[in-house]
C-alpha cells in the first residue's frame, strides 16, 4: 500500500493525527509530513516542546490514534446505481484486518487471485490496445476467475481506464449475474477531492475483526510506469512476487521487456571479491543494461542506481512474464495470468514441497484444464494423493468433469478418495432450491421426528431450508440419500447404502430411523455412487464421465434414465424439467447403443447381460430397470426381443402356427408327435450365455425325467401355452357369467342359487387365489413393496375392482331385500370382467398399439368433457330459466339442465319445448312456460349447437388424430415394450388356467412348504434358463460319443458349444453318459 500524503491517516478502528511541532524549521506553510499548516490540530500548532528541535518527521512518533470518522457508502456520478463502500486506512494497517473487513462486513466474495495494476500514473495518454487489454482481457478474466483488481484509485491514467472498464461491464451485465467484478482503489487521502464531505465527526465507529494469515495468490501487472518504480519492482521480486509486464505500453514496462528479451543469453559469473555467495553480473552485462537505461530514461540523473536495480531485477527474471498485448488477442488473458503464476511457482521452494497447489486451485477455479495439462500435468511434477484430494473435491462440487478425469489419470485413487463420509459431504453441498435438496431435507426432518410439519414432496411447494434446519444440509447423511433413492427407484431394486448404515437386516423403516449408523469405510462402488450423485443433480457431462467409469454400462445408463424421469415428475421449473428429460433420453440411447454393440459381438453373452442380477444396483436386472425407466427404445432392440421371444416360446420353434397350439391344447397327446417342432438352437444360445457368466452352480444336478414327462413339461410350461390356456378359459368364464345373468339367475335362498352359479363362484375364487399368489408369494421383495407394485399396475386395479364388485353382488343377492341390487352390481361387474379382455390382446402386434391409443384417447376425452361440461351448464341453466320461470321438481330441472342439452349434441332437439302445450300444462305434467323468451332460446340453441357440434367435436377429433399419429409412428416400439410386461406375467403363472389352476396351487404348496423344492422362476428370467439347460444336458452326447465321432451334427457351432458345455459341467455330462 502507498504511504499517506496527509498528516492524518486512518486505521480501520482509529485514525492518526499529526502532532509534529510546526517551528521555524517547517517548510513555509507545510509540515514535514506533507500537510498544510492550517490542516493541523491545535496540539501541533502550539509550542509545547519549547526549544526542542526535531529534524525528521516520524509517523510512529509524531502521530496520535483516534477512532475513524470516514467510512460508509458513496455513489459515483455517471456510474451505476449501486453504492460503493469506502474507508480510510493507515499505511500500516494489517492486510489481514482489511481483508476480514471487506469479506465479512462489506460482503465481497473471497478472491481466487489479486491482480495489482501498477504504473500508468499521471495524465499520460493510454494506448488504445492497452485499453482493450484492460477491458477485454483483465476485466473479463477477473469475472471468470473471481479475481480482485487493485488500482491506485486515481481518475487518470491506467486507474481511470480500469474504472471505466469495470463500470461498462457492470452496466452491460445482468442484474442477477453471480460473477461481479470487484475493483478496489487505494488512493492517498490527500488526493481525494472534497474529502471533508466523507468525514462525519458526529458518528465514529470502532470495528473489531479477527486477524489471521491470508493465503491468496497475488500478481502485479505493470503498465508503463516511471523509473522510480524500479525499486518497488526489485523489492517485490526478492519476496518472490510474480509480475506481468505489458510490453509496448511505454515507460518502465518497455525497459524491462527490452532488458529481459534481449539480454536473456547473458552469463552470470560468481564474484570472487564477495564472500556472501551471491551471484554478480559480468561487466559486459552491466554495460548493456546501462545502455538501455540511457535509452529509455535519458533524463534520469541517478542512472547508476537504476542500473543496479535493473541487474537485481534481471537476476530474478524468472518471476517476470512479458506479455506482448499489441500482437496478441486479449480474449485469453486469463490464460496469461495463470501461466505467469505457474511460471513463478516453479522458482519457489515450498516447505511442503508442493509449490503448485495454489496454481492448481486457480486452474480448477477458472476451469482451465488446458493450462493444467500443459503446465502442471506435463510430466515434470510428481503429484501426490494429498495434493489432489482438495482440488478433486472442488472439481466435483463445482461441476468440472474434465478436471475429475485429469486427476484420476494422474495419481488420484478413487478407492482411497471416496469414503462414505466424503460421499455424505458431497450430498451436503447440494445447492438449495433444487428438487434433490428439498427431498433430502424432508427425509432429514422425517428422521428427526418432525415429519408431520413437512408436506408431501411437491415441486410447487417450496419449503425454505431455514424452516427445516438451523444449518441447511449440515446433518444430511446416507440415510436420507437412501430414502431419496428408494423414492425414485421404487421397488425395482433393493435399498442403497443399507450395508454401510448397518440396516441390511432391518426390515422396519421406523426402527431403521433409530438405529442407523454411518461407517467411515471406503465406498464399495465409488464410481456408481458418484454417478448417482451426479445424476441426481442433473449434471450431464459429469454423469456421463462417471457412467463411463462405473462399469455395467447398460444397467447404469438405464438406472440414470429411471432416476431422471422420476425427478422430472417432481421438478417444477419447466427448463430444468426439459433438461432432465433430455438427459434421460440420452442415457436410454446410450444403453441401446452399448447393448447393440454387445449383441453384434456375442449374442449369447448379450442375453446374459439382460438377465444378470447386479450387486451394484441392488440385485436388479437390465430388463427390470428398463421396465421401471419406461425405456421403450431399449426394449425395441432386436436382441431384447429375441430373448423375450425365446422365453415366450420356450423349447418350441418360434414359427409354430397358432392352430397347432390350439389342436395340441385340446388333444395333448399330439405334443409327443412331430406336429410341434422343438428347437435346439435356442437351447444352445441360452446354455452358452449361462456358461459364460456361471449363472448356475456346477454341483446342482437336474432331476432325471423320462421322455414323456420332459416333453409334457416342454409344451405345457411354455409361457405361450399358459397364455393360450388362460385366454380360452377366460372366454369360457365370460360365457358362463353371461349365462348365469341372462338365463339361470335364481331367487335368493332357499330357491337359489343354481349349480352354474356355484360353479361361477368357485371360478372367481380360483382367480382370487391366483391374484393373492402373484401379490404375496412371488418374488423377493418385502410385503409393502409387493403391494405397491401390484397397485401400480392398471390391470391389477381392474382385477381388484372386478373381484370387489363380485363379492358385493354375491352378498347382496343372497338376501331378498337386496336381491335386485345385487343383480345390478353383478351386471356392472360383468362389464369390468369383459374389459379385462383388452389386456390379453396386447401381445398382438396390430392390436397392441391400438390398445395404447385407446388408453391415451381416454385422457383426451377428459379434457373434452371439461369444456363440454362448461357449455352444458351455461346453456342448460340459461335455457331452463328462460323457458320456465318456476319449476319445483328437482328431477325435471336436472334432466333439462344436463341431460337434454347433452342429447341436443346428437340431434335430439324437442321443438315442442319452445311452443306452449296447453294440454300438458292443464294436466299438471308440465309447468307453465314463459312465451316471450322463445326467440332468445332459439338463438342460444343455435350458438350451443355451433360450439358443441362443430367446434368441440372437431377439437376432439383433432386430439384423437394427433394421439393416433403419435402412437402409430412408434407403434412397433410401444408394442414391444407392452409385450414384455405380458410375457413377465404369464412366465410366472402356472401352466393351468382357472378354475383348474387350483391344482397348480396345491402342487406349489406341497413343493414349496412340504418338499422344500426351490422355485426355478424366482430370479426372473435368469432361473428360467436353468430348465433349458437341464433339457439340453439330458439330450447331450456323452464324452465317449464326442471323442469317437458317433455324434454327428451339421452345425459346427453346435459342436463347439457341446464341447464347452462338457468342459463346464463334467458332473452332468458324466451322469448323462
Automatic annotation (TrEMBL):
<dbReference type="InterPro" id="IPR041491">
    <property type="entry name" value="TRPM_SLOG"/>
</dbReference>
<keyword id="KW-0406">Ion transport</keyword>
<feature type="transmembrane region" description="Helical">
    <location>
        <begin position="515"/>
        <end position="536"/>
    </location>
</feature>
<feature type="transmembrane region" description="Helical">
    <location>
        <begin position="800"/>
        <end position="818"/>
    </location>
</feature>
<feature type="transmembrane region" description="Helical">
    <location>
        <begin position="860"/>
        <end position="878"/>
    </location>
</feature>
<keyword id="KW-0472">Membrane</keyword>
<dbReference type="GO" id="GO:0099604">
    <property type="term" value="F:ligand-gated calcium channel activity"/>
</dbReference>
<dbReference type="GO" id="GO:0005227">
    <property type="term" value="F:calcium-activated cation channel activity"/>
</dbReference>
<keyword id="KW-1133">Transmembrane helix</keyword>
<feature type="transmembrane region" description="Helical">
    <location>
        <begin position="715"/>
        <end position="740"/>
    </location>
</feature>
<feature type="transmembrane region" description="Helical">
    <location>
        <begin position="935"/>
        <end position="957"/>
    </location>
</feature>
<dbReference type="Pfam" id="PF25508">
    <property type="entry name" value="TRPM2"/>
</dbReference>
<feature type="domain" description="Ion transport">
    <location>
        <begin position="729"/>
        <end position="971"/>
    </location>
</feature>
<dbReference type="Pfam" id="PF18139">
    <property type="entry name" value="LSDAT_euk"/>
</dbReference>
<feature type="transmembrane region" description="Helical">
    <location>
        <begin position="760"/>
        <end position="779"/>
    </location>
</feature>
<dbReference type="InterPro" id="IPR050927">
    <property type="entry name" value="TRPM"/>
</dbReference>
<dbReference type="InterPro" id="IPR057366">
    <property type="entry name" value="TRPM-like"/>
</dbReference>
<keyword id="KW-0407">Ion channel</keyword>
<protein>
    <recommendedName>
        <fullName>Transient receptor potential cation channel subfamily M member 4</fullName>
    </recommendedName>
</protein>
<dbReference type="GO" id="GO:0005886">
    <property type="term" value="C:plasma membrane"/>
</dbReference>
<feature type="transmembrane region" description="Helical">
    <location>
        <begin position="830"/>
        <end position="848"/>
    </location>
</feature>
<feature type="domain" description="TRPM SLOG">
    <location>
        <begin position="85"/>
        <end position="206"/>
    </location>
</feature>
<keyword id="KW-0812">Transmembrane</keyword>
<feature type="domain" description="TRPM-like">
    <location>
        <begin position="375"/>
        <end position="637"/>
    </location>
</feature>
<keyword id="KW-0813">Transport</keyword>
<dbReference type="InterPro" id="IPR005821">
    <property type="entry name" value="Ion_trans_dom"/>
</dbReference>
<dbReference type="Pfam" id="PF00520">
    <property type="entry name" value="Ion_trans"/>
</dbReference>
Amino acid at each position: 500500500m502507498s504511504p499517506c500524503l496527509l498528516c492524518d491517516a486512518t486505521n480501520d478502528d482509529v485514525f492518526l493525527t499529526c502532532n509534529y511541532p510546526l517551528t521555524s524549521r517547517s517548510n513555509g506553510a507545510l509540515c514535514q509530513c506533507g500537510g498544510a499548516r492550517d490542516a493541523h490540530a491545535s496540539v501541533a500548532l502550539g509550542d509545547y516542546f519549547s526549544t526542542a528541535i526535531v529534524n525528521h518527521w516520524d509517523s510512529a512518533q509524531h502521530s496520535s490514534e483516534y477512532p475513524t470518522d470516514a467510512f460508509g457508502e458513496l455513489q459515483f456520478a455517471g456510474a451505476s446505481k449501486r453504492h460503493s463502500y469506502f474507508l480510510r486506512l493507515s499505511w500500516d494497517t494489517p492486510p489481514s484486518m482489511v481483508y476480514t473487513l471487506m469479506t465479512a462486513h462489506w460482503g465481497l466474495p473471497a478472491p481466487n487471485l489479486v491482480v495489482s495494476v501498477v504504473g500508468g500514473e499521471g495524465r499520460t495518454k493510454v494506448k488504445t490496445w492497452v485499453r482493450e487489454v484492460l477491458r477485454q482481457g483483465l476485466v473479463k478474466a477477473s469475472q471468470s476467475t473471481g479475481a480482485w483488481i487493485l488500482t491506485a484509485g486515481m481518475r487518470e491514467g491506467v486507474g481511470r481506464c480500469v474504472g471505466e472498464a469495470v463500470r461498462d461491464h457492470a452496466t452491460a451485465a445482468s442484474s442477477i449475474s453471480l460473477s461481479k467484478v470487484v475493483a478496489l482503489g487505494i488512493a492517498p487521502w490527500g488526493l481525494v477531492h472534497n474529502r471533508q464531505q466523507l468525514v462525519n465527526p458526529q458518528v465514529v465507529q470502532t470495528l473489531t475483526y479477527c486477524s489471521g494469515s491470508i493465503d491468496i495468490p497475488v500478481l502485479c501487472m505493470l503498465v508503463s510506469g516511471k523509473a522510480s518504480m524500479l525499486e518497488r519492482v526489485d523489492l517485490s521480486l526478492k519476496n518472490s512476487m510474480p509480475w506481468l509486464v505489458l510490453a509496448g505500453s511505454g515507460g518502465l514496462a518497455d525497459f524491462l521487456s527490452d532488458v529481459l528479451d534481449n539480454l536473456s543469453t547473458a552469463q552470470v559469473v560468481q564474484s570472487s571479491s564477495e564472500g556472501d555467495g551471491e551471484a554478480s553480473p559480468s561487466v559486459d552485462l552491466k554495460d548493456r543494461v546501462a545502455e538501455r537505461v540511457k535509452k529509455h530514461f535519458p533524463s534520469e540523473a541517478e542512472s547508476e542506481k537504476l542500473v543496479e536495480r535493473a541487474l537485481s531485477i534481471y537476476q530474478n527474471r524468472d518471476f517476470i512474464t512479458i506479455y506482448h498485448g499489441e500482437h496478441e488477442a486479449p480474449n485469453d488473458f486469463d490464460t496469461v495470468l495463470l501461466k505467469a503464476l505457474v511460471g513463478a511457482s516453479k522458482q519457489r521452494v515450498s516447505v511442503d514441497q508442493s509449490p503448485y497447489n495454489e496454481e492448481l486451485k486457480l486452474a480448477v477455479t477458472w476451469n482451465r484444464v488446458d493450462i493444467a495439462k500443459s503446465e502442471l500435468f506435463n510430466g515434470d511434477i510428481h503429484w501426490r494423493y494429498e495434493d489432489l484430494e482438495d482440488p478433486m473435491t472442488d472439481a466435483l462440487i463445482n461441476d468440472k468433469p474434465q478436471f475429475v478425469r485429469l486427476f484420476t489419470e494422474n495419481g488420484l485413487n478413487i478407492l482411497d478418495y471416496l469414503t462414505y463420509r466424503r460421499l455424505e459431504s458431497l450430498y451436503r453441498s447440494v445447492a438449495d432450491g433444487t428438487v434433490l435438496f428439498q427431498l433430502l431435507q424432508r427425509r432429514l426432518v422425517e428422521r428427526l421426528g418432525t415429519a408431520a410439519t413437512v408436506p408431501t414432496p411437491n415441486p410447487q411447494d417450496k419449503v425454505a431450508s431455514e424452516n427445516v434446519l438451523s444449518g441447511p444440509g449440515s446433518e444430511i447423511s446416507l440415510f436420507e440419500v437412501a430414502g431419496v433413492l428408494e423414492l425414485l427407484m421404487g421397488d425395482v431394486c433393493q435399498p442403497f447404502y443399507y450395508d454401510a448404515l448397518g440396516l441390511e437386516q432391518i426390515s422396519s423403516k421406523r426402527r431403521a430411523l433409530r438405529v442407523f449408523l454411518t461407517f467411515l469405510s471406503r465406498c464399495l462402488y465409488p464410481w456408481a455412487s458418484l454417478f448417482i450423485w451426479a445424476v441426481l443433480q442433473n449434471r450431464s457431462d459429469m454423469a456421463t464421465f462417471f457412467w463411463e467409469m462405473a462399469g455395467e454400462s447398460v444397467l447404469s445408463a438405464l438406472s440414470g434414465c429411471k432416476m431422471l424421469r422420476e425427478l422430472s415428475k417432481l421438478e417444477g421449473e419447466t427448463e430444468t424439467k426439459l433438461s432432465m428429460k433430455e438427459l434421460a433420453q440420452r442415457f436410454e440411447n446410450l444403453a441401446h447403443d452399448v447393448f447393440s454393440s454387445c449383441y453384434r459381438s456375442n449374442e449369447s453373452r448379450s442375453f446374459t447381460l439382460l438377465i444378470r442380477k447386479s450387486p451394484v444396483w441392488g440385485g436388479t436386472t437390465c430388463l427390470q430397470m428398463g421396465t421401471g425407466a419406461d425405456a421403450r427404445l431399449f426394449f425395441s432392440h432386436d436382441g431384447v426381443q429375441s430373448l423375450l421371444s425365446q422365453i415366450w416360446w420356450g423349447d418350441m420353434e418360434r414359427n409354430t402356427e397358432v392352430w397347432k397350439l390350439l389342436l395340441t391344447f385340446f388333444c395333448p397327446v399330439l405334443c409327443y408327435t412331430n406336429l410341434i417342432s422343438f428347437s435346439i438352437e435356442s437351447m444352445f444360445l441360452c446354455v452358452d450365455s449361462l456358461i459364460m457368466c456361471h449363472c448356475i452352480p456346477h454341483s446342482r444336478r437336474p432331476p432325471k425325467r423320462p421322455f414323456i414327462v420332459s416333453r409334457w413339461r416342454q409344451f405345457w410350461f411354455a409361457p405361450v401355452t399358459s397364455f393360450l390356456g388362460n385366454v380360452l378359459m377366460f372366454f369360457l368364464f365370460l360365457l358362463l357369467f353371461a349365462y348365469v345373468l341372462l338365463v339361470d339367475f335364481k331367487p335368493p335362498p332357499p330357491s337359489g342359487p343354481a349349480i352354474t352359479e356355484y360353479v361361477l363362484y368357485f371360478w372367481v375364487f380360483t382367480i382370487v387365489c391366483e391374484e393373492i399368489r402373484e401379490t404375496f408369494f412371488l418374488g423377493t421383495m418385502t410385503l409393502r413393496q409387493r403391494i405397491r407394485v401390484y397397485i401400480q399396475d392398471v390391470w391389477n386395479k381392474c382385477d381388484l375392482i372386478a373381484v370387489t364388485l363380485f363379492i358385493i353382488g354375491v352378498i347382496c343377492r343372497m338376501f331378498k331385500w337386496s336381491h335386485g341390487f345385487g343383480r345390478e352390481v353383478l351386471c356392472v361387474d360383468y362389464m369390468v370382467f369383459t374389459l379385462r379382455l383388452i389386456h390379453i390382446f396386447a401381445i398382438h402386434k396390430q392390436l397392441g398399439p391400438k390398445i395404447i391409443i385407446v388408453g391415451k384417447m381416454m385422457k383426451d376425452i377428459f379434457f373434452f368433457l371439461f369444456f363440454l361440461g362448461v357449455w352444458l351448464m351455461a346453456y342448460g341453466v340459461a335455457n331452463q330459466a328462460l323457458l320456465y320461470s318456476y319449476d319445483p321438481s328437482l328431477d325435471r330441472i336436472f334432466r333439462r339442465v344436463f341431460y337434454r342439452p347433452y342429447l341436443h349434441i346428437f340431434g335430439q332437439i324437442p321443438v315442442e319445448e319452445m311452443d306452449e302445450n296447453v294440454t300438458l300444462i292443464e294436466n299438471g305434467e308440465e309447468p307453465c312456460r314463459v312465451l316471450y323468451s322463445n326467440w332468445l332460446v332459439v338463438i342460444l340453441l343455435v350458438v350451443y349447437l355451433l360450439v358443441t357440434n362443430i367446434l368441440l367435436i372437431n377439437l376432439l377429433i383433432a386430439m384423437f388424430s394427433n394421439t393416433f399419429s403419435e402412437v402409430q409412428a412408434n407403434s412397433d416400439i410401444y408394442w414391444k415394450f407392452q409385450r414384455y410386461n405380458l410375457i413377465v406375467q404369464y412366465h410366472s403363472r402356472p401352466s393351468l388356467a382357472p378354475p383348474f389352476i387350483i391344482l397348480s396351487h396345491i402342487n406349489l404348496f406341497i413343493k414349496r412348504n412340504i418338499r422344500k423344492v426351490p422355485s426355478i422362476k424366482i430370479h426372473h428370467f435368469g432361473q428360467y434358463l436353468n430348465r433349458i439347460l437341464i433339457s439340453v444336458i439330458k439330450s447331450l452326447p456323452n464324452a465317449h460319443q464326442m471323442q469317437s465321432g458317433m455324434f454327428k451334427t451339421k452345425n459346427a457351432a453346435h459342436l463347439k458349444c457341446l464341447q464347452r458345455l462338457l468342459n463346464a459341467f463334467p458332473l452332468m455330462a458324466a451322469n448323462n453318459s
